[in-house]
Amino acid sequence: MIRFQSEQLRTFLTVLESGTFDAAAHSLHVTASAVSQRIKAMEQEAGQVLLLRSAPISTTPAGAVVLKLARQMRQLEDDASAELEPNTGTRGSLTIVVNADSLATWFMDALALLPKDGRLNLELVREDEQHSVNLLRSGAVMAAVTATATPVQGCSSTPLGTMNYRAIASASFMEQWFPKGFTAEQLTAAPVIQFDRSDTLQNNFFTQVTGQHRSSPQHFIPDTIQFAEAVKLGLGWGMMPEAHCRDGLCSGHLVELLPGSLARIPLFWQRWKIQSQALDALSAVVAQAAAKALG
Hints:
It comes from Arthrobacter alpinus. Belongs to the LysR transcriptional regulatory family. The relative contact order is 0.15. The strands form three sheets. Strands 3, 4, 5, 6, 9, 10 and 11 form a seven-stranded mixed sheet that branches. The chain has a two-stranded antiparallel sheet with strand order 1-2. Helix 1 crosses helix 3 and helix 2 (21-28) crosses helix 3. It has helices at 6-18, 21-28, 32-46, 61-84, 100-105, 107-111, 133-138, 171-177, 184-187, 201-210, 224-232, 242-251, 277-293; strands at residues 51-52, 58-59, 92-98, 120-126, 143-146, 155-170, 192-194, 218-220, 238-241, 254-256, 262-272. It is 45% helix and 21% strand. The protein contains 13 helices and eleven strands. The longest helix is centred in the first third of the chain and has 24 residues, at 61-84. By secondary structure, it is α/β, with parallel strands linked by helices. Among the domains are: 1-89, Orthogonal Bundle (Arc Repressor Mutant, subunit A); 163-264, 3-Layer(aba) Sandwich (D-Maltodextrin-Binding Protein, domain 2), CATH 3.40.190.10.
């Protein structure tokens, strides 16, 4: 059975978080040679390479398994410290992956429900909800807001609710591209706003309406707030969360391409199945905020 020492796991995690052996050595107050020796000892124990000596350093598939173990061990140590030193001990460092639209609409409300005593460190990673489980699977994060219901191995999956999107354009855009009202034929020529190249919402709507693959002009704007601003300014049409288009629709500045047509994206909370007070607390507030914000 492969067994790693806690010092080795701590070094392994620090190397990946620091990006280089030298930076890890500085953080751990040891020499770079000592860091290198610990990693080599781990690789000898595992019988395979765990780290790619790239810039920054990254894991091999086997190293991703060790990374997950190292993160779990650190969190368990932090939880123990919090119980033994209730007034001073840290509750841990949680790394979470969240999709951009959740970050911009409801997820920060969840974080606001956590104790504000400075004892919990959070790192948020932004990734599309269709791809976020890849980071969970690799061990890079401990929990994820994702559109994937099937739990990653070693994780639990809990439904959060549904995020609803509407196909939206500005009133001026509609007058320019659909002067006689919306038609599928006109949609094939109208510019579209895409979040990034992994964004499928607009393409799915286009195919649903026209029965074709989209080939119209497109703009990539990888920021939720600026995406909405681009739609408001008439640069193109796009799929917007209801929370971001509700006021514009009420005022008449924004218009639905197909009134009443919704794209419903179910969201799930996947997290490691470890006994962790910090992760339990985070999961509870995420569920609370999602119940209030999502359909």
